[in-house]
Design goal:
Blueprint: H1 2-22, E1 28-32, E2 36-37, H2 45-48, H3 50-61, E3 64-66, E4 74-82, E5 89-98, E6 101-111, H4 116-130, H5 150-165, E7 169-180, E8 191-192, E9 197-204, E10 211-222, E11 229-230, E12 240-254, E13 259-276, E14 280-281, E15 287-288, E16 293-310, E17 315-325, H6 327-330, E18 347-360
Helix pairs in contact: 3-4
Length: 361
């Protein structure tokens, strides 16, 4: 009983595999070429209709599709000529071709007054020879080049290129160059902090569309934003080296084309490491001596409009204007702490950002 069960299971697996292998196959396309008759020879009308009869007989055993010569998987050619070495006899020749190569040739010789049963038996033999070669086949996909005028082709190329740029994944690395802290009290309206400001983005665009979900990382090492007062002169901002490590998440919108535009908005929350370059103090409790360091909670709401130029289907250059806002600094709320401040009034404007993006599928 156990052996019978195992054998049955094996047969079911084999049968299922065969069915699955047939799912993606299509019927064989066959072209019936016009009958070729030797010059000066007048055969019986029965032989002239032989290829049609052969096709119908094969079709009853193995379903086929009759097609043009250009679309055919196989071709059946028929020749009618006088038989050699046999007086008053007709030679009927069927040739099955594929890719201009003869797969099978069947020849029948019929003398005057031939028996119709012999003719039918010959056709049945041909069916037995040809049918196994005309099974289902893999579908054939062909690329067709459209012959159009230059302007239309150029437009089509642009549309195809724009579609190729709409990939589902895109990674961008930004570097900030020129920034302004809205404080303005220290007399430094603009800050050049390249190359120690970076902003990395990884964006997923569902369905390769215009709207994407972005994961990001903000990294900066700078000294121009102050977070406490100098102990020596409390009216002056305290000098410190500041390291920002802020992961985040946000939303990206993009347009398509070789030249495009977009917008990103996201929230980055992480740690700020303050390393004192002099003795620092702040009313909320921050007190650092020179060369001491401390980590504090930090966050930015980032808004970045940008423009982009696609170098090819994978790489893009970008430039942007960006605004970094500290919501806890601007608006009173239960999470706000006076332990540190992110520079008055809790915002940073970047006038120049440069970015490079890589896209893939």
């Amino acid at each position: 009983m156990r052996i019978r069960t195992v054998i049955t299971a094996i047969f079911l697996v084999i049968f299922s595999s065969l069915l699955h292998s047939q799912e993606n196959l299509i019927l064989h396309r066959v072209y019936i070429a016009p009958v070729t008759v030797s010059p000066g020879f007048s055969p019986d009308g029965l032989f002239l209709s032989a290829p049609e009869t052969l096709f119908n007989l094969i079709n009853t055993r193995q379903p086929l599709i009759r097609s043009s010569e250009e679309e055919a998987n196989s071709i059946i050619r028929t020749e009618i000529l006088p038989a050699e070495n046999v007086e008053s006899a007709v030679e009927l020749r069927f040739t099955l071709l594929r890719n201009d190569e003869a797969l099978h040739v069947s020849v029948g010789v019929f003398q005057d007054g031939f028996n119709f049963e012999d003719y039918r038996n010959f056709l049945e033999e041909c069916v037995g020879d040809f049918a196994p070669e005309l099974g289902r086949v893999e579908p054939r996909i062909e690329l067709i080049r459209l012959e159009t005028d230059a302007d239309t082709r150029r437009l089509l190329d642009q549309l195809i290129y724009a579609d190729a740029l709409q990939t589902p994944f895109e990674a961008t690395l930004w570097t900030g160059i020129l920034s302004k802290n809205p404080d303005g009290e220290d007399g430094k309206p603009l800050y050049l902090h390249f190359p120690l400001h970076y902003y990395g983005e990884f964006t997923w665009f569902p369905n390769q569309g215009h709207h994407g979900l972005t994961a990001s990382l903000f990294f900066e090492y700078s000294d121009y934003t102050y977070h406490a007062d100098s102990v020596i002169n409390t009216d002056e901002p305290g000098r410190s080296d500041n390291l920002y490590l802020l992961p985040g998440i946000g939303y990206t919108y993009r347009t398509s084309g070789e030249f495009s535009a977009g917008f990103y908005s996201g929230l980055n929350v992480g740690g700020l490491r303050i390393h004192a370059r002099e003795d620092l103090t702040w009313d909320g409790g921050l007190s650092l001596q020179e060369n001491e360091s401390e980590w504090v909670l930090m966050h930015y709401l980032v808004m970045r409009p940008y423009v982009a130029w696609a170098l090819n289907e994978s790489w893009t250059l970008k430039t942007s204007f960006a605004l970094y806002i500290s919501l806890l600094q601007l608006f009173p709320n239960p999470l706000q702490t006076d332990y540190y401040r992110a520079g008055d009034p809790g915002a940073e404007i970047q006038f120049v950002n440069l970015g490079v993006s890589y896209r893939w599928r």
